[in-house]
Amino acid sequence: MALASLPCAAQAAKRASATSSASVQQAVKLAATGRCKEAVPVLRRGLPRVTEKDLRYHAAMALTRCAMGMNDDQDAADSLLLLKREFPADPEVLYITAHYFTEMGMRAAQELVAKAPASYQAQRLQAEALESAGKNDEAAAIYSRILTDHPKTPGIHYRLGQILLAEAGPTGSTDKAKVEFQKELEVDPTNAASEFILGELARRAGQWDDAIPHFTRAATLDVGFAEAYLALGMTLNASSKFADAVKPLEHYVALEPGDPAGHYQLAMSYARTGNKAGSTEQLALQAKAASAAQATDTTQGHSVPQ
User: Fold this and answer.
1) Do 206 and 265 reside in the same domain of the chain?
2) Which of 84, 88, 162, 279 can bridge 271 by disulfide, Cβ–Cβ 3.0-4.6 Å?
3) CA–CA separation, 200 vs 174, rounded Å?
4) Residue 257 and residue 241: Cα distance in Å, rounded?
5) pLDDT tens track for 92-150
6) pLDDT in tens, 185-234
7) How far apart are CA 134 and CA 150, in angstroms?
8) Does 61 lie in the same domain as 129?
9) CB–CB of 252/269 below 8 Å?
10) C-alpha separations of 23 from 49, 61, 63, 237, 245 in Å
11) What is the dihedral of CA 249, 250, 254, 255, to 10 degrees?
12) Domain with 201 in it: what CATH number?
């Protein structure tokens, strides 16, 4: 009897799926005419049971747009995550994702300023906006006030360091900026970005022995920090520690196979440690990556004929 009931169960499931798809299709039409209050409950219930790819796309998009219009962050985020997972390269998905999170960020910022205008978080938001607008002196003054009242706030010394670097320019002294990045690490020893910048400043000054530990710590703190592996490998090569450079450079080219610089540096390390075959292979990969990058630049710089 149990075996005999299997076809019936399959038919019932098929009918239920068809009914769900029809309901979702109708809800998509309702959403298109602005009847989101009617459409959203149907889309929310029916979308998980829809199997047709095209309908899933349109249903998730309809739910996202309706939820955004209704300020329903939960449904909007859930449907956006579905779209990003199942249609990751779709231009409309990418656009609406950027639009939604920008809008959500603006709403959160307005709410922060309205509900806690005197908080250091609100002050920091104001300072970051001023910094983005190029008003570095005004931003720095706010950052300094935050540190006076909340000296252990993570990220503030880092922001001050960035402003001081910008003011120093390519030829000015970076001593004051270095102090801020060092203070940031006293507040937040896990700040990989501060470690990296201190390493980069030392590397540019030819201070290899100072740069190497900073880059090493940056890569250790953030294993996905690709630039830290490249900078570490470059610095080890520059200080003739070619064997030590191999591992971080191998890690870098695995993370960023399209960057010619990584292949060149690894080719150098291989050549100086006797791995001639590996060096030859990396030089070939460097040429291929450089050619691909040039082709991309050319395509982006000219319109494609219709």
Assistant:
1) yes
2) 279
3) 11
4) 23
5) 999 999 988 888 888 889 999 999 999 999 999 999 999 999 999 999 999 999 999 99
6) 999 999 999 999 999 999 999 999 999 999 999 999 999 999 999 999 99
7) 24
8) no
9) no
10) 11, 16, 14, 64, 60
11) -30
12) 1.25.40.10
Record the tokens describing residue 27, joined without a space.
Answer: 């809800």
Rounded to whole angstroms, the Cα distance separating 269 from 286 reads: 14
Give the Cα separation of 78 and 60 in Å (integer): 9
- Look-up of token digits 């870098």: 252
Q: How many domains does the chain have?
A: 3
At which of 131, 159, 189 does a domain end? 189
Tell me which residue range forms the domain holding 74. 24-111
Q: Which of 91, 42, 99, 41 is nearest to 65 (CA)?
A: 99
pTM (whole model) above 0.85: no
How far is Cα 286 from Cα 283, in angstroms, rounded to an integer?
5
Tokens of 146: 């935050």
